[in-house]
């Protein structure tokens, strides 16, 4: 969810409980095994062929108050059939429209700038590191809960919100998946990755290239201090 927490509803014998552990408590090693290769090579993150799509990405979210079952959702209507489906749900009382988003979501709330946080997310993602760094081994232990809770709260306050958060999520997933396709498919990735996904990834081209070909680490001043005199003799 937008609060960087995993929302799960636990059902016991007599009652239900919703838990929201911070995402960082999960061990990084579960990332790649838990996602199928077909998901890594998919570029229909927005379900573009559906008549109507319901999701949380572009909707407002109050980290202190909302849960996955109570937070507002964003509905994308793509055609007349989708419009009829939404109108029927509203007329039956199953859906309440809190705010209309206008064409392309122009009237939806949107704050912040997704660019820098998208790059940082890609840089720190264990799944991306697995693709780009042959010697990288993801850890088997997540952050301690008290540390992860602090990190989740700080990140949630600095992230873009509303529609800009949705764009951030799409940008990150398309960059990650393009890296996967380039790694697994080679030249065939040119035909597989759709043009609209490449257009979304294009503004990040320099950052992605820097990830693929990182510069060699510069020697520290201590290195020169210890060995510099020997080289001069």
**What order do the SSEs take from the amino end to the carboxyl end, as H and E?**
EEHEEHEHHHEHHHHH
What value does the Rg take, in angstroms? 22 Å
* Mean pLDDT over the residues: 86
Helix content: 40-55%
Give the termini distance in whole angstroms: 60 Å
Helical element count? 10
Biggest sheet statistics:
2 strands, antiparallel
Enumerate the strands of the largest sheet in spatial order, edge to edge or round the barrel. Answer: 1-2
How does this structure look, described?
This protein has 233 residues and is mainly α. The chain has one domain (8-212). Helices cover 44% and strands 9% of the residues. The strands form three sheets. It has a two-stranded antiparallel ribbon. A two-stranded antiparallel ribbon has the order 3-4. Helix 3 runs parallel beside helix 6, helix 4 (126-132) runs parallel beside helix 6 and helix 6 packs across helix 8 (195-201). The longest helix is centred in the C-terminal third of the chain and has 23 residues, at 163-185. The N and C termini lie far apart (60 Å).
């Amino acid at each position: 969810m937008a609060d960087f927490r995993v929302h799960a509803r636990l059902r016991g014998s007599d009652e239900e409980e919703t838990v929201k552990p911070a995402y960082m408590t999960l061990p990084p090693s579960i990332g790649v095994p838990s996602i199928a290769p077909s998901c890594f090579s998919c570029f229909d993150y927005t379900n573009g062929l559906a008549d109507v799509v319901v999701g949380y990405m572009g909707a407002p979210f109050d980290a202190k108050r909302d849960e996955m079952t109570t937070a507002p959702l964003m509905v994308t209507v793509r055609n007349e059939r989708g419009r009829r489906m939404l109108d029927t749900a509203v007329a039956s009382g199953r859906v309440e429209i809190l705010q209309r988003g206008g064409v392309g979501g122009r009237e939806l709330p949107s704050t912040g700038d997704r660019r820098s946080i998208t790059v940082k997310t890609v840089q720190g993602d264990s799944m991306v590191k697995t693709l780009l760094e042959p010697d990288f081994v993801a850890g088997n232990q997540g952050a301690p809960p008290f540390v992860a809770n602090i990190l989740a709260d700080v990140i949630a306050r600095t992230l873009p919100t509303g529609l800009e958060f949705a764009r951030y999520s799409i940008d990150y997933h398309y960059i990650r998946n393009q890296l996967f396709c380039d790694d697994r498919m080679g030249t065939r990735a040119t035909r597989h990755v759709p043009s609209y996904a490449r257009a979304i990834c294009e503004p990040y081209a320099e950052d992605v290239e820097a990830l693929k070909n990182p510069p060699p680490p510069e020697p520290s001043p201590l290195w020169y201090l210890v060995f510099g005199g020997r080289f001069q003799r």
